[in-house]
């Protein structure tokens, strides 16, 4: 099976690329060459910028793919470009959306693929919803062969906390030097975190699955943790005692706004301050045998070891420390 990945070496896409290769896919990765390809030696790489449409057309001239996946499309304009680029040259186009697109605040505690898509707090999520709308319209009007996948807080080469880190190592370094970290609310809201290798099992199972055309799926773990348990597991992986302060979400957002970190409002009120309980019945029906097997306590240990093994990966984001310090200082007043 011939597959084209736009992206393919990132936090989510890297695991999908590795599994696709292991299952015998003929994989081509279109990227700008900014990440290492050492673990993907079986793939063919095309060095190009997806935003340069004519360049991409020239490099893909005459090609046809069973499946095209875009891991890095975020706006309706990018989706319009992809519909033009890939109409007629692929049998399936998979769009990576986001589970943050689901209704916020939720009116029902269990999220299924039929949960409404509405997020008044986060422009990132609203853009993903608009992308989905465009793709569904193209599918209805011209048969553009879409499958929509909504990951939720998926990690392997990132630190999946709500405040303090993502691609950087800031939260681990802060914990190790005895600094205080922030947990929003009382830390008891429920959350779902999924290891990329588990996500990949469901995702690769959808590739080339013609029954999934026109459908949307979320692919998550079934493990439910509250934020106190999540931060405790991160501290254990860092090898330290957890030193945390609980602060209300509204206070955090207000103080973040004051120092130009307005994105925190969407990140919390539009996502992580809400409980997220996912019903994975649909992905299990379309991909029999799908199961997320890596518990967070083990997965985050692997992630911290991955950073520790290579000092060049360790980056401290001063803005993350500044944000936490500003919120803590204001709370102490």
Descriptors for this entry?
Rossmann fold; 333 residues; globular; 2 domains; 15% strand
Summarize the structure in words.
α3 (76-86) links the parallel β4 and β5. The chain folds into two domains: 2-152 and 195-218, NAD(P)-binding Rossmann-like Domain (Rossmann fold), CATH 3.40.50.720; 154-193 and 223-278 and 294-332, UDP-galactose 4-epimerase, domain 1 (Alpha-Beta Complex), CATH 3.90.25. By secondary structure, it is of the alpha/beta class. The model has no long low-confidence stretch (mean pLDDT 96). The chain has a seven-stranded parallel sheet, sandwiched between helices. It has twelve helices and 15 strands. The longest helix has 20 residues, at 123-142. Helix content is 40%, strand content 15%. The protein is globular.
Short characterization:
This protein is an alpha/beta fold and about 325 residues long. The protein has helices at about 15-20, 55-60, 75-85, 125-140, 170-175, 195-205, 225-240, 250-260, 265-270, 280-285, 295-310, 320-330; strands at about 1-5, 25-30, 45, 65-70, 95, 110, 145-150, 155, 180-185, 190, 195, 215-220, 225, 245, 275-280. It has twelve helices and 15 strands.
Q: Termini, distance in Å?
A: 61 Å
Number of helices: 12
Rg measurement, Å: 20 Å
Can you say what the CATH homologous superfamily of the largest domain is?
Answer: NAD(P)-binding Rossmann-like Domain
CATH topology of the largest domain: Rossmann fold
- Architecture of the largest domain, according to CATH? 3-Layer(aba) Sandwich
CATH class of the largest domain: Alpha Beta
Secondary-structure-based class equals alpha/beta
Number of individual domains: 2
The coarse silhouette is globular
How do the SSEs run, as a string of H and E? EHEEHEHEEHEEHEEEHEEHEHHEHHH
The stretches of 5 or more residues where confidence is low (pLDDT under 50) are none
Provide the spatial order of strands within the biggest beta sheet.
3-2-1-4-5-7-12
> Could you report the average pLDDT, rounded to the nearest whole number?
96
Strand content range: 15-25%
Strand segment count:
15
**Main beta-sheet annotation:** 7 strands, parallel
Helix share, percent: 25-40%
């Amino acid at each position: 099976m011939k597959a084209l990945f736009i992206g393919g070496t990132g936090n989510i896409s890297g695991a999908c690329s590795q599994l696709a290769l292991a299952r015998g896919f003929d994989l081509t990765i279109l990227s700008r060459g900014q990440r290492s390809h050492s673990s993907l030696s079986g793939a063919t790489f095309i060095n190009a910028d997806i935003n340069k449409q004519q360049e991409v057309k020239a490099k893909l001239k005459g090609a046809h793919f069973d499946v095209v996946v875009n891991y890095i499309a975020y706006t309706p304009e990018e989706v319009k470009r992809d519909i033009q680029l890939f109409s007629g040259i692929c049998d399936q186009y998979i769009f990576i959306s986001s589970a943050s697109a689901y209704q916020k605040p939720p009116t029902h505690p269990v999220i299924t693929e039929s949960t409404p898509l509405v997020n008044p707090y986060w422009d990132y999520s609203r853009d993903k919803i608009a992308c989905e709308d465009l793709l569904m319209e193209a599918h209805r009007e011209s048969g553009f062969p879409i499958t929509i996948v909504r990951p939720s807080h998926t990690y392997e080469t990132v630190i999946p906390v709500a405040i303090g880190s993502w691609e950087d190592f800031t939260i681990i370094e802060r914990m190790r030097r005895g600094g205080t970290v922030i947990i929003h609310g009382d830390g008891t809201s429920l959350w779902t975190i999924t290891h990329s290798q588990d996500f990949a099992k469901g995702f690769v199972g959808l590739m080339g699955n013609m029954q999934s055309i026109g459908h949307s799926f979320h692919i998550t773990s079934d493990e439910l943790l509250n934020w106190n348990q999540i931060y405790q597991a991160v501290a254990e992986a860092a090898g330290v005692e957890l030193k945390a302060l609980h602060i209300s979400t509204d206070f955090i957002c207000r103080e973040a706004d004051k120092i130009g970190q307005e994105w925190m409002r969407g990140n919390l009120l539009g996502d992580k301050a809400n409980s997220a309980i996912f019903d994975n019945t649909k992905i299990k029906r379309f991909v029999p045998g799908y199961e997320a097997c890596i518990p967070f306590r083990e997965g985050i240990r692997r992630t911290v070891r991955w950073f520790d093994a290579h000092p060049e990966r360790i980056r401290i984001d001063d803005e993350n420390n500044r944000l936490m310090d500003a919120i803590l200082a204001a709370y102490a007043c």
